[in-house]
Design a protein that fits this description.
Helix content: 25-40%
Strand order of the largest sheet: 1-2
Order of helices and strands: HHEEHH
Largest sheet: 2 strands, antiparallel
Radius of gyration: 17 Å
Shape: extended
Strand content: 5-15%
Structural class: mainly alpha
């Protein structure tokens, strides 16, 4: 998606190699939106107490997996992690799926 300013002036040069505070807030918000809509439920299922399927993701299971792989967790909006730690987080196993509604 191109923003209006990019269509008018062209894209900004992508020369920054570190995660900036504003970039981290964007990454954080995308991850938390996925946490809220159940996208991690396939990889880290939270079973419904009635036994009729998955109702979302299990925060404890997800946190244990992340920490077991050396991935930063929990995520702090106000503290920007090291760039390589962020890359480990977002380029880790394919565990995000489309939410079923």
């Amino acid at each position: 998606m191109a923003y209006f300013s990019e269509r008018e002036k062209g894209p900004k040069p992508r020369t920054i190699e570190e995660i900036t505070p504003s970039a981290w807030k964007g990454i954080w918000s995308i991850i938390h939106a996925r946490l809220e809509n159940g996208s991690f439920g396939n990889a880290f299922p939270d079973q419904c107490p009635d036994g009729r399927g998955v109702v979302g993701h299990s925060p404890a299971l997800m946190e244990a997996s992340a920490q077991g792989h050396g991935i930063i967790w929990p995520l702090d909006l106000d503290q920007v992690p090291d760039t390589l730690e962020v890359m480990d987080l977002v380029v880790s196993e394919n565990c995000v799926h489309t939410a079923l509604t």
